[in-house]
Amino acid sequence: MPTQQNAFPISLTTADYKNELAKRHRLQGVSPSACAVIDELQPLNLPEAEREQSPLALLDKLTNINKHRRVLLTNLKREVLEDQPLPFPHILTDMKGILPSGIRHNLVTFAFYVAIEERIVSGKEIGTVLDVFGNFILKELLPLFQKFFEIP
Fold this sequence. Notes:
By secondary structure, this protein is of the alpha+beta class. Helices cover 38% and strands 20% of the residues. The radius of gyration is 21 Å and the shape is elongated.
């Protein structure tokens, strides 16, 4: 039977993963077949150079920054629009300004958006970051576990 100690461990090394299981009892009472899926998803199974950039590792890092240290830093970013896609959501405004080419112009359209300023996703619009992680969880992770929650 699962306990309150249960959590989906995310580990970059075998030693950390073993610690999560043995000392922190993260998968105690979880079915062996569900544990096998969780084992396979661990970033530690990737080549070492790719581990820290895996979606689970990035999500874990952002969660821990937010949970243990501080609220995720955000910044209002400005972009001069010249036929480029806009992050969503955004605020558009026209004003006098300087184009990227250096030319002063009386009417420049600027887009402003809230961006996360943590190094691992620096400058990325917050809704886009959340959408990427949400889709990863919804489309790639949850389907792997659906069979464990189906009623026979």
